[in-house]
Amino acid sequence: MARRERPLSPHLQVYRPQITSVLSITHRMTGIALAGGILILTYWLTAATYGADAFATAQAVIGSWVGQVVLWGLLFSLYYHLGNGIRHLMWDAGSGFDLPSVRRTGMLVVLFAVVMTAATLGCAYFVIGG
Amino acid sequence: MEMRSPLSRVRGLGAAHEGVAHWWAQRLTGVALVPLTLWFIWAMSGLLGADLAAMKAWIGMGQNAVLLILLIVAGMHHAQLGLQVVIEDYVHAEGTKTVSLVLVKLGAVFLGAINIFAVLKLTFGS
């Protein structure tokens, strides 16, 4: 059957981004990123079962600058998805639906993700010495 | 006037015929993942650049292997439930959608099995 192209709603090209919609799609994107992160965990664990050399290679790949940048992204994704997930649980419990609360908890989640990511990276690089 | 049959009402499954099972499982695994992922970040920060001997020593310590398996199970389940919704929302061609869902569902089981086997092998194997 021939499909007719119909206008999409909301019309994304002319739609002004709002904190509600931006944080919502970020939740999805971080979720997809974390699902991809499971592949890195799989590589890391599987390499360990193949012996010391394979594991050393995996550690070197993950510890390379590309690997480190990916880990930073995953770390932020995890803290964001965790914080916003708790926000969703709060909504599930029926509270915080009014717009001021939605804005406040949204900003809180972003702040939480940024601060926790920075704190964890700070510990990893300066305290433990990665 | 009540249009639903008494059986339909008591089952409470609604139009999608699955009720709140998906929603509930997403929440339950999400709650489990809060402590598990925080533990995971903390644990991994201690293994930066570690060699295999140190990694095996860590996995054999306390309940690390158990927590890792719980993280894998909860994480895989949570991920495939989430990816399912993303696919259902954005992929509208029926064939592509079905194939994508099958790949995500089977892929999650496959990756879960690989990861659990790896943890067990690192814990008990040579």
How many domain units of chain B?
A: 1
Shape summary of chain A? extended
Query: What is the architecture of chain A at the second tier of CATH?
Result: Up-down Bundle
User: How much helical structure, as a percent, in the residues of chain B?
Assistant: over 70%
Low-confidence stretches of chain B at least 5 residues in length (pLDDT < 50)?
A: none
Q: How many independent structural domains of chain A?
A: 1
Number of distinct helices of chain B? 5
Order of secondary-structure elements of chain A: HHHH
- Unreliable spans of chain A are none
CATH fold group of chain A: 3 helical TM bundles of succinate and fumarate reductases
Look at the helices and sheets of chain A and give the structural class.
mainly alpha
Distance between the termini of chain B: 69 Å
CATH homologous superfamily (4th level) name of chain B: Fumarate reductase/succinate dehydrogenase, transmembrane subunit
User: Could you estimate the helical fraction of the residues of chain A in percent?
Assistant: over 70%
CATH fold call of chain B = 3 helical TM bundles of succinate and fumarate reductases
The main pleated sheet of chain A reads as: none
Strand content of chain A: under 5%
The chain pair forming the largest interface, with residue counts per chain, is:
A-B, 32 and 34 residues
Average pLDDT of chain B, to the nearest integer? 93
Question: Terminal Cα separation of chain A, in Å?
Answer: 58 Å
**Rg of chain B computed from alpha carbons, rounded to a whole number of angstroms:** 20 Å
